[in-house]
Amino acid sequence: MNTKIAAFLRDSRPATPCLVMDLDIVADNFCALRAALPDTRIFYAVKANPAPAILKLLVAAGSSFDCASIPEIDMVLAAGATPDRISFGNTIKKESDVAAAFERGVRLYAFDSEAELDKVARAAPGSRVFCRILTSGEGAEWPLSRKFGCEPEMAKELLLAARFKGVEPYGVSFHVGSQQRDLEQYDRALAEVADIFHDLAGKGLELKMVNLGGGFATKYMVDIPTAEQYGQAIRDSLLKHFGNRMPETIIEPGRGMVGNAGVIQSEVVLISKKSANDNRSWVYLDIGKFGGLAETMDEAIKYPLVTEHDAEGAESEPVIIAGPTCDSADILYDKADYRLPTALRIGDKVEIRAAGAYTTTYASNGFNGFAPLTEYYI
User: Which residues carry out catalysis (predicted)?
Assistant: First the structure.
């Protein structure tokens, strides 16, 4: 357990469930990524955790920001960032929102279809645009679907067309999937990006930027690559595919920036069995899918769980872990082999570790009357 967070929980004894974030870890993560990719601009993915304390810290550190909406843009501007440090990276935007971002000074926009490109051209004339391509998401614990991106051949056509629509076709983006531990996926994506660059150069269009997206992992139950390993793999791939004609590069870390900085403290509400022959207990926590743990959907993200009874050699048993709401979907872990101490009792605290990303932003505003997840930044 992080000693700073442990001391806060011990001294403050906050009501549960709550998220406690160590801002020093966020700062360390930013520095590690900057050192691993010194020639690459970092655009923090605000959706991972938009807390003002985090945004202000990253503004001061020199980060730029990947925003998905006007409220996110406004939060970043309120934290002190200038518009030139913002990318409107959502490929699904209302034209009125594009216009609002343009009015605020934002000049960098993502798109992945002709209709979206036309929106940007009308509402943000003269801006730089980059086209997102599809990737398989293979190897990612939280893969991204075909909802975002287009086939590389379509991207070529759209970028060529952009020249005549009053915007600057600036580059190509991809995302290898969130919590991506397979470093080869960056090379596979960059091979496709390089083909787009080289093909369009032959047609008179010189692209300038590659947006490598996110994918940088947080350690949950298994080991992950270090920031330096991510950086080395990306640098090697860029050199392999682009040689001396190196493009400008940006990355959009979210989970990898804030995930390991947060711990959720929860409380056991109920421990029960469904029959006399049930070989697993049900452990119900005061937080579930709708309270901030949406990424347990399909048991994709497996958070480490820690209790006060976890001494070496302590007896444990297999369990099903669920949230407190009146929704049958609110089961966190059933198929995964989670075990908790047999000494665990109703009222005991359970720490959900590495919970700094995609928790507060996924928390419901009041399903079943449960309050949104309380946050502390220290």
Answer: 326 (proton donor)
User: In CATH, what class is 260-377?
Assistant: mainly beta
Give the CATH number of domain 24-259; options: 1.10.3720.10, 3.40.50.880, 3.10.150.10, 3.20.20.10: 3.20.20.10
Contact 341, 307 (CB under 8 A): yes
Read off the pLDDT of residues 189-234 as tens digits, 9 standing for 90 and up.
999 999 999 999 999 999 999 999 999 999 998 899 999 999 999 9
From 31, 131, 150, 326, active-site residue: 326
Can you give the residue ranges of every domain in the chain? Answer: 24-259, 260-377
Does 326 qualify as catalytic in the annotation? Answer: yes
DSSP string, 275-307: STT-SSEEEEES--GGGT-GGGGGG-S---EEE
Q: Tens digits of per-residue pLDDT, 136-162?
A: 778 777 677 678 999 999 999 999 999
Cβ-count burial of 261 within 10 angstroms (0-12 exposed, 13-18 middle, 19+ buried)? Answer: buried
